[in-house]
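Support request, please re-run this one:
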Amino acid sequence: MNNEKKYDRAYLIGLAGRIYDLDQDVYETLGSSLGRVFGADRERSVADLTSLLRDVKGESEVRNLLALIGNMARTLPDGDDHFRLLSEYNALLHELAELPSGLASTDILDERNARQNELLLDNRFQPGQKLIVCISRTCGSGASDVGFMLADRLKIDYYDAEIFAAVIKRLEAEQDGVTDVLGGSAAQAGSIFQRVKQKITLRERLRQISRYHGLPARDAVFFSQSGLICDMARRQDFVVMGRCADVVLANERVPHISIFITAPEDLRTRRVMAVNHIDEKKARAMIRRVDRVHAAYYRFYTGRKWGAAENYDLCFNSANYGIQGSIDFIMNTLCLDRLREAKEQSNSAGA
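Re-run finished. Output below.
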């Protein structure tokens, strides 16, 4: 009974309020509008967040918003503010994971165990180079949760398609001097989840064509994201989901770790059913459709076969371990704790 009361509407409103307040605190500490995730007023933002927290599918959106806030907080230099903001971020992340319908509720777990082969990466990362983990995955394998929580375990940033879209939007706003909806005033932004449709003038369309040299929108987005990935790789450690990041970085000779995560279709189907509240037939159709799109996208932009073991450092079945077990498997197999410590010592010596 006590457990049920803990997660009632009042609790979710309080949790949503803390997420909003953390964003406000990061924004004020950074002193930049680009550090702001929620553009609407507190009441509206908290109401929207609370609504999302009550749904399994919505929680992943909240998690991505929290990841954006965490990414911005990590840009602060070490000190009291850095420690305080990231401590609150970690506390909120833990509470999201503990929700009855949260990250652990649709965990994939199989009793089978796989042998862990040690892959030494010490020689790949030279002093001063960043730790970058690229994760590709089949739909429903739980890899997004693995990637997000792996980034938190390593204390580095996390990026997926939605976060990239938000970051690119902000960069374009900063470069072009246009209004940043996510970072603007409450009156300008409205709800943070509202899709604003605006008419594009001929001048604006010509400006966009000029910027991307006439490329189709899909190609323009891919090259914008690829450029951003390479730029970030020179400045920070991070985990990135999809985006052909493994090949993008390989082409630029940037050291990285590439991982492919999958699971049996029956287990992936059950997860997709639980997360999306759909029946088995629709879940199986969704899995096959999403995987087909990912495979075509990867082949189109890289010329490689998506999911082929020879293209990755590590491929594994997340059903053997579950979400937390998969993180432990990655950390242990790739010796990431040791690699992280070696990098930190090297960076400290260089400083």
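The mean pLDDT is 77. DSSP finds 15 helices and five strands in the chain.
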